[in-house]
Structures are given as structure tokens and as C-alpha cells.
Sequence to fold (56 residues):
Amino acid sequence: MADSNAEVVKILKAIETQLGDIKHNLADIKREMPKVPYYGDLLQDIVKAVEELNRS
Fold:
């Protein structure tokens, strides 16, 4: 019984380590992604540009 508990603890610690690695990897990926404006803001900018073209 003690051996199985020790093995479960060992497995859980390995999982915890892997989850920590995944968390850091995701943070790195998010940091390196280009900043993209929200689609609503992008559409609003397009509408303003078209209105300004029509005024000219």
C-alpha cells in the first residue's frame, strides 16, 4: 500500500512539473504573438477610412 501511495505521489509531482512547464510555454507564446486589434475596432477604422474617402 505504501509503495502505491509513493508512486501516486511521484506521478502527481511529475504532472505538476509538466503543467508548470506548459504554463510558462503558453506565456512565452502569448508574449511573442503579434498584437492584433479587436475586430470591432478594425471594422470601425475601415468605416472611418471609407467615409473619409467619400468626402474627398
Summary: The radius of gyration is 25 Å. Residues 2-32 form the longest helix (31 residues).
